[in-house]
Every structure is written in C-alpha cells, then in structure tokens.
Amino acid sequence: MSTVFVTTAYGGPENQQLSTREAPAPRPGEIAIEVRVAGVNPADAKRREGLFGTKGSLPLALGLEAAGVVTALGEGVDGFEIGDDVLGAPARGLGAFAEHTVLKASAAVHRPPEVACEQAATLPVAGTTAWDLAASAAPGETVLVLGAGGGVGRMAVQVAVAAGARVLGVASRGKQELVESAGAEQVLSGDGAADAVRDLAADGVDLLIDLVGGQPLRDLAPLTRDPARILSAADQATAEELGGGGRPSSEDALAQITRLVADGAVDPHVTARYPLVAAAEAMAAVETGHSAGKIVLIP
Q1: What is the 3-class SS of the chain, one letter each residue?
Q2: Does some domain include residue 258?
Q3: Does residue 144 share a domain with residue 169?
Q4: What pLDDT score does 288 carry?
Q5: Which tens digit of pLDDT belongs to each residue from 199-222?
Q6: CA–CA dist 149, 126 (Å, integer)
C-alpha cells in the first residue's frame, strides 16, 4: 500500500487526512512515479474547497505538482525509461501528495541533473505560471510584477530579467531582499505604489504581470501602455475589464522554465520542507498567504 494525503469532502482543512491506496498503475500514455518531492500551492486549497469544481470522486487526492523517479510505463509511452528522473502534474486527479502517483507522459519532462528535485517539484504549476505570464517580455522593455515577493511572482521576475527586461517588483517591505535578489527594483505595495512606479517609469510599463488582483491591479493597470498586456493569474475578470486578460498558456512552458532553472537564470527559492505526514501543516502555511518562498513536501 502507498500513503496519500486526501480530502474526504469539499470544504475546509478539517476534511484532510492521510490515507492509503494501491500504488496507481499507468494507463496508456502515462508514467508511474515514486514521488520524491511535491510542491504545495494556494491552488491546492482552492481545489480542496471545490473552487475548481466538485465533480471529482471522494476522497480526493491532493497535490498538483511532483518530481520523482519513473517506476512503470503505460502502453505507447516513448521517450521515458524506468529509473528516469522526471517532473510533471499528476494525471486523472491522482494527486502529488503521495508516495506514488501517475503523470501524463506528454505533459512530463526529464529532470536535468542541474535542477535539484526540490526545485523541480515547484515547476509544473508555479513555474509554468511564471513562464506563461512573463514569456512575452522582451529586451529593453519595462515589466511590472504585482506580487513579486511570492513564489510565482519571484520566478516571473527572473523570467523577465532573463529575457533582458527591466523589472519593477511590487511587494511588501519585508520582501525587499527577495525581490531585489531576483533582479527587480522594488516598489513598496500599498497606496503609494502607483506614484512610485510613475517615478521609476515615467513613460509607463510595457507589461503588467498580476498575482494579486483587486484594487491593487486597478490602481496599477493605467500605467500599462498597452492594456492588452495586462496579464493576471489572480483576477482574470478584472484584467479583462481593464483591457487585458488572464494567464496565457503554452505547451512548452514546463520545458522552458526547467531549462531556465538548469541554466541558473531562475531559482524557485524553496524555503520550507515538510514530510508527507505533515501535509496539513504545509497546506496551512501556504494558506496564510505570507510565504516568502516555495513550500514542498518530501514523502
């Protein structure tokens, strides 16, 4: 039997618990893995609460990104071998907070030796979000990242910096070192943020990446020269109202962000590690919204 962290009902953390199951076998086009590290994200709590829908069967395995070692291949899988180090998102809702899970082979990539397993486990969700939001940054452009001190925001800063852009990162005073170490100029969040950005970029910004939403997005959106380049992973409705949109998507996002980590251009900045038996504590830490880096589980 294999240990897995589940929710037995859609709702709050009181429904979470450790459980056991047979190690899932891969179907055609899938690869089974022994999970070495799983990334923990705000989206995990939203999924538990049913914000992504409540049609999944219960108990529902949690966890949306994993890195591990291939233990079995489904029919028709090419390009992977048993023993390969890989990363990806679990298939069929099987969850990453587990000792064993299954990935869709077409959505998984090999883990380069330069990428630590802890780093790899933050890339299928957080890393690809950062890539999709910042991939359009171009050399010489000015990019504004709202929420630059969070795990996704900091990686988005680094993606834009790697592209040759100047980056302004909006974050609280306590996250100044995080923001500046990623290559951005910090703008303090709060009522004075818009004026501070105007002082730093009198002609406005070329791309606004939003990971906060709400009123802060409304306050900063007018500084974007082309409203179509307002991109929000936190508040798509408001971004669209302002002339922009939600997170774009690209099929090669995982491969691209993995390459940048291997090259040393992006550091996912893992700051907290929990054993699988403490998955509830890891979830609670992410749900505070105050994490200064990425949180991972190690089965």
Answers
A1: CEEEEEECCCCCHHHEEEEEECCCCCCCCEEEEEEEEEEECHHHHHHHHCCCCCCCCCCEECCCEEEEEEEEECCCCCCCCCCCEEEECECCCCCCCECEEEEEHHHCEECCCCCCHHHHCCHHHHHHHHHHHHCCCCCCCEEEEECCCCHHHHHHHHHHHHCCCEEEEEECHHHHHHHHHCCCEEEECCCCHHHHHHHHCCCCECEEEECCCHHHHHHHHHHECCHHHEEECCCHHHHHHCCCEECCCCCCHHHHHHHHHHCCCCCCCEEEEEEHHHHHHHHHHHHCCCCCCEEEEEC
A2: no
A3: yes
A4: 85
A5: 999 999 999 999 999 999 999 999
A6: 13
Domain count, the chain: 2
Bridge partners (DSSP) of residue 103 are 31, 90
Residue 214, classed as helix, strand or coil, is helix
Residues 16 and 68 in one domain: yes
C-alpha 159/C-alpha 145 separation (Å) is 11
pLDDT in tens, 92-129: 999 999 999 999 999 999 999 999 999 999 999 999 99
User: What's the alpha-carbon Rg for the chain, to the nearest Å?
Assistant: 19
